[in-house]
Design goal:
alpha/beta; Rossmann fold; 7-stranded mixed sheet; about 20% strand; globular
């Protein structure tokens, strides 16, 4: 497989990423649109979802990523395996999510190791912000999940704070700030790399309140 070289950082606030994408015909993408849907925001090369789609064929999976070449390669990998429950989209999720999916269409959402944007003047570029969380609250089914993780404590704290501030979300365990283990059956490349270096990963699991 050829090496795909892609810029590591893309400014989501630049003009070229402000137009929402057209809503796909989901019936032409998924074999069965009645399966529960899992959205992975910032899926990068899509390897996490590639494994998830094979591990859980009774679910549909959607990965979104702002770096277009990664999306093209991810869909090629999906086609090579012939998976009919997986799709990747190129978009700025903060711009497109509101019209991309309808109310209560998501069973689960993951946001894993997002770009930390360390510099203070760049932190407005971070993906988890109140408007995104509000849209996710509408699109998740009652008792659906939102799972976040990062190897940067400041980023994990910021995500947890923004999500906890929304009345629709409840931490699965508020007795401890971070989950000791990943409850999902598949780990991301970044998670495996971080743990192999004996460094911490900061995780939270939120449930969409039923009322």
């Amino acid at each position: 497989m050829s090496v795909l070289r892609v810029r590591q950082h893309v400014n989501p606030l630049s003009h070229k990423y402000q137009a929402p994408i057209a809503v796909p015909d989901w019936t032409s993408i998924y074999k069965d649109c009645d399966r529960p849907l899992h959205l992975d925001i910032g899926c990068a090369r899509g390897l996490f979802l590639l494994e998830m789609a094979q591990a859980k064929p009774e679910w549909n999976f959607l990965g979104v990523e702002i770096r277009e070449p990664l999306v093209a390669r991810a869909n090629e990998d999906r086609d090579t395996l012939g998976l009919d429950n997986l799709h990747y989209l190129f978009c700025n999720i903060n711009v497109s999510l509101g019209q991309l999916l309808g109310p209560e269409t998501l069973q689960g959402v993951t946001i894993q190791f997002p770009d930390p944007w360390f510099k203070k003047r760049h932190q407005k570029r971070r993906v988890v912000e109140p408007q995104l969380v509000d849209v996710l609250a509408r699109q998740l089914v009652p008792n659906g999940f939102l799972f976040i993780q990062s190897d940067v404590l400041e980023v994990a704290q910021q995500m947890r704070s923004v999500i906890s501030a929304h009345p629709a979300f409840q931490l699965s365990d508020d007795s401890t700030p971070w989950l000791p283990h990943n409850p999902l059956p598949v780990s991301t490349e970044r998670e495996r790399f971080t743990l192999a270096q004996d460094k911490p990963v900061y995780r939270c699991w939120f449930a969409r309140r039923a009322t």
